[in-house]
Amino acid sequence: MLLGPIATAADVLVVTDSHHPVQAPAGARVIELDQAARIEFELAAHLPTDPRQAAALVRQRLHAGGEALQRRIGHAYQGVADAWGLGIARIPAVVVDRRYVVYGEPDVPRAIARIDAYRGTQP
Q1: How far apart are CA 117 and CA 99, in angstroms?
Q2: Which of 49, 76, 106, 115 has a CA that sits 20 to 30 A from residue 57's CA?
Q3: Is-contact 16 107, C-beta < 8 A?
Q4: What is the spatial distance between Cα 65 and Cα 68, in angstroms, rounded to a whole number?
Q5: Is residue 3 predicted with pLDDT exceeding 70?
Q6: In a 3-state reduction of DSSP, which class is residue 119?
Q7: How far is CA 46 from the centre of its chain?
Q8: What residue ranges do the domains of the chain occupy?
């Protein structure tokens, strides 16, 4: 099993965007850095040119989306903050234990195996 005792799924964070798809195992947290922008695009789709009407329509969409939409927005921005806080420099990035990172590998189990191999050589 690729997610053995060294790297469990709860320890794995994947940072990417919609243009860099990844193959993440179940249980890995995946942050798509452009998720917030995609939600904003949904809210702004087909707005009238009148600013007051547009604002009213966005408020209506936010209200209609309810708590589920608020959670989506909150999770999207929290993911960006988490990636920034970790100092993620490129995507995709696979982070284990908030300490080890592999950049550029879309196959998450392969990235985890590389991290595990490295950790196995350390005292």
Answers
A1: 15
A2: 76
A3: no
A4: 6
A5: no
A6: helix
A7: 27
A8: 9-121
Helix (H, G, I), strand (E, B) or coil at 95: strand
Alpha helices in 2-104 (DSSP H): 35-44, 51-86
CA dist 35 and 23 (Å) reads 17
6 has pLDDT over 60: no
The pLDDT, as a whole number, for residue 27 is 86
Residue 8 pLDDT > 80 = no
pLDDT tier for residue 26 given thresholds of 50, 70 and 90: confident
Question: Is beta strand 29-32 parallel, antiparallel or unpaired with respect to 12-16?
Answer: parallel
- The percentage of the chain sitting over the pLDDT mark of 70, rounded to a whole number, equals 92
HEC profile of 34-54: CHHHHHHHHHHCCCCCCHHHH
For the record, the structure tokens of 119 come out as: 């950790």
Distance CA 122, CA 106 (A): 25
Instruction: Report cis status (omega within 30 of 0) of the bond before 123.
Output: no
Q: pTM score, two decimals? A: 0.82
